[in-house]
Automatic annotation (TrEMBL):
Its EC number is 1.1.5.3. Keywords: FAD, Flavoprotein, Oxidoreductase. Belongs to the FAD-dependent glycerol-3-phosphate dehydrogenase family. It comes from Halopseudomonas pertucinogena. PANTHER family: GLYCEROL-3-PHOSPHATE DEHYDROGENASE (PTHR11985), GLYCEROL-3-PHOSPHATE DEHYDROGENASE, MITOCHONDRIAL (PTHR11985:SF15). This is Glycerol-3-phosphate dehydrogenase.
C-alpha cells in the first residue's frame, strides 16, 4: 500500500472525487473501503486519529446482542448474527470466537425466558462455525459466589475494535482511497451537482479545498454538529447521545470464557478476558450531553460496575483495582424516548438528494458488528445516486492480514520463519497483524535487528511500520489504538516512545 504515515498524501484539489467521507471510525472507513472497491474515487478525512472516538471505546465484541431480544429487535439481532459469521471469516487475526456464561439469577429472569432467548439467538441466523447454547452446572472451582450454581453458555466473538478500523482503512487505501487522519472538515457547501469541501490539516493549520460528487457524513456522535455547523444541509434529524463506560482490572479468573451478568435494573454487564493479564468490565448506558471527545467514566458508573461484579464474583474489587477506564459516546437513531438502554442500536442512512443537487448521505446509529452491511448499503445508495454500475463485494473479502486458515497454523508458520522471535511477540503479532507480520518484519533476521525495545516487546521496527503503514503519529496511537501496550509501559517508556516518534516525523516532514 502507499506509505500512510511518514509521507502524508496531498491529493490535488483539481481532482473531482466521487465521494468524500467525513469520519474515520468504523462506519466511515467501511464505506470508504466498499466504495473504493467499486471503482469510486474516494477521499476520507478524520479530525483526529482513526478510531480515536467511539470505535475504539466499545465492549470489543462482535455479537448479535442477546439483550436486544427483550426489546423485540429480532431484525437487528438476526442481521448482526449473520455478520458475525462473515467477520469471523474475513478477519480471523483480530476477531476470535468466545464463549459466554450467563449466571442464572431466578429473581431477575426465569430460566424458561433465558432458554427461549438463547434458542432464538441460536437460530435467527445460520451458524457456520460457532457452537450453540446449553445449560451449565457451575462447579466448586467457579470464580462466582457459591450460591450461584447454575447458568447458561452461548457463543459470540471478540474483536480488537481499533485495529479493525485501521485494517479497513488499509483495505480502502489499497483500492485507491485517500485516507487523511488529523484532517478536519471545516466547511462543505453545494455548488450545483458538486460539493466544495474545505479541509484543514490539524497539525499545520493549512487548508485545502476539494470537490466531490457526493458527501458522506459518518462523524458518529458529531453527525448533528456537522449538519448544523459545517455542512450546508436541510436535514436536522435528532440523535440521542448515549455514553457507555468500561473499566479494566487485573484478570479475575484464568478461564478463557467471558461472563454476562444481569442486574436488577434489567441491564447487563460483560466481564471479558482482556490482553491476557486483565479483565474488561462494561458497559453502562447513560444519556450524554457535551463534547463527545471529553467523555469519561464517572465515579457513579465505576461504582455501578464494581457493585454488580462484586455481587457475582468471590473476588471483591475496589476502585483501587481499576487500571484503566474509557468511555465512548454512541449516536443512536432513536426518537422514541425512554431509557438509554432501550434505545435502538440499529443504523439508519439519511439521504438528502434533489435533482441537480449533490447528494448527502448521513449515517445515524449503528454498531461495530453491522459496519460491513451498513457500508454495503451505503455504497449501493451512492452508486445509484451517482448512476454508476456496482456490485457488492465485501462479504468474501479478507481484511489485510486475514488470509490464513487458523491461528495455530499461522503461529507455527511465524515460529518456523522467525525462530529468533520470542513467543510472546510472535503470538501478539499473529493476533494483531496476521500475515502482515511478514511485511512488518521484512528482511529482519534477529531480535537486535528490530531496534530499540521501548518496553513490553515494542521495538523500533514495529513503531516505524505503524507510522509508515497504519497512520500512527503519536505514542497514544501506537499504545492504545494500534495495540493495548499502554497497559504495560511505564510513564518514562511512554515519554521515550513519544520522543522517538516526534524525531522521526521531523526527519520526514516535507
Amino acid at each position: 500500500m502507499p506509505d500512510a504515515g511518514a509521507h502524508r498524501p496531498n491529493p490535488s484539489s483539481d481532482i473531482i472525487h466521487d465521494v468524500i467521507v467525513i469520519g474515520g471510525g468504523i462506519n466511515g472507513c467501511g464505506i470508504a473501503m466498499d466504495a473504493a472497491g467499486r471503482g469510486l474515487r474516494v477521499l476520507l478525512c478524520e479530525q483526529d486519529d482513526l478510531a480515536s472516538a467511539t470505535s475504539s471505546r466499545s465492549s470489543k465484541l462482535i455479537h448479535g446482542g442477546l439483550r436486544y431480544l427483550e426489546f423485540f429487535e429480532f431484525g437487528l439481532v438476526g442481521k448482526a448474527l449473520a455478520e458475525r459469521e462473515t467477520l469471523l471469516r474475513n478477519a480471523p487475526h483480530i476477531i476470535r470466537p468466545m464463549r459466554f456464561r450467563l449466571p442464572h439469577q431466578p429473581h431477575l429472569r426465569p430460566a424458561w425466558m433465558i432458554r427461549l432467548g438463547l434458542f432464538l439467538y441460536d437460530h435467527l441466523a445460520r451458524r457456520e462455525t460457532l457452537p450453540g447454547s446449553h445449560g451449565v452446572k457451575l462447579q466448586a472451582d467457579s470464580p462466582l459466589r457459591p450460591e450461584i450454581t447454575r447458568g447458561f453458555e452461548y457463543s459470540d466473538a471478540w474483536v480488537d475494535d481499533a485495529r479493525l478500523v485501521v485494517l479497513v482503512a488499509r483495505a480502502a487505501a489499497e483500492r485507491g482511497a485517500v485516507i487523511l487522519p488529523r484532517t478536519a472538515c471545516v466547511k462543505a457547501e453545494r455548488q450545483g451537482d458538486l460539493w466544495r469541501v474545505t479541509l484543514e490539516d490539524r497539525r499545520t493549520g493549512q487548508r485545502q479545498q476539494h470537490r466531490s460528487r457526493a458527501l458522506v457524513n459518518a462523524a458518529g456522535p458529531w453527525v448533528s454538529n456537522l449538519l448544523g455547523q459545517v455542512i450546508e444541509s436541510a436535514s436536522r434529524r435528532p440523535l440521542r447521545l448515549v455514553k457507555g463506560s468500561h473499566i479494566v482490572v487485573p484478570r479475575m479468573y484464568s478461564a478463557e470464557h467471558a461472563y454476562i451478568l444481569q442486574n436488577v435494573d434489567n441491564r447487563i454487564v460483560f466481564v471479558i478476558p482482556f490482553e491476557e493479564d486483565f479483565s474488561l468490565i462494561g458497559t453502562t448506558d447513560v444519556d450524554y450531553q457535551g463534547d463527545p471527545a471529553a467523555a469519561a467514566i464517572s465515579d457513579e458508573e465505576t461504582r455501578y460496575l464494581l457493585r454488580l461484579v462484586n455481587s457475582h464474583f468471590q473476588r471483591q474489587l475496589t476502585a483501587s483495582d481499576v487500571l484503566w477506564s474509557f468511555a465512548g459516546v454512541r449516536a443512536l437513531a432513536d426518537e422514541a424516548g425512554g431509557k438509554a438502554q432501550a434505545a435502538s442500536r440499529d443504523y439508519m442512512l439519511d439521504i438528502e438528494s434533489a435533482p441537480g443537487q449533490a447528494p448527502l448521505l448521513s449515517v445515524l446509529g449503528g454498531k461495530i458488528t453491522t459496519y460491513r452491511r451498513l457500508a454495503e448499503q451505503a455504497a449501493d445508495e451512492l452508486c445509484e445516486l451517482l448512476q454508476r454500475p456496482s456490485r457488492a463485494w465485501t462479504s468474501a473479502a479478507a481484511l489485510p492480514g486475514g488470509d490464513f486458515p487458523d491461528h495455530g497454523t499461522l503461529l507455527a508458520d511465524l515460529q518456523k520463519l522467525y525462530p529468533w522471535l520470542p513467543e510472546t511477540i510472535a503470538r501478539r503479532f499473529a493476533r494483531s497483524y496476521g500475515t502482515l507480520t511478514h511485511e512488518l518484519l521484512g528482511d529482519c533476521s534477529s531480535l537486535n535487528g528490530m531496534g530499540r525495545d521501548f518496553g513490553a516487546g515494542l521495538h523500533a521496527l514495529e513503531v516505524r511500520y505503524l507510522i509508515q503503514h497504519e497512520w500512527a503519529a503519536t505514542a497514544d496511537d501506537v499504545l492504545w489504538r494500534r495495540s493495548k501496550l499502554g497497559l504495560r509501559l511505564r510513564p518514562g517508556q511512554v515519554a521515550a516512545l513519544q520522543d522517538y516518534i516526534e524525531l522521526r516525523s521531523q526527519w520526514h516532514r516535507p
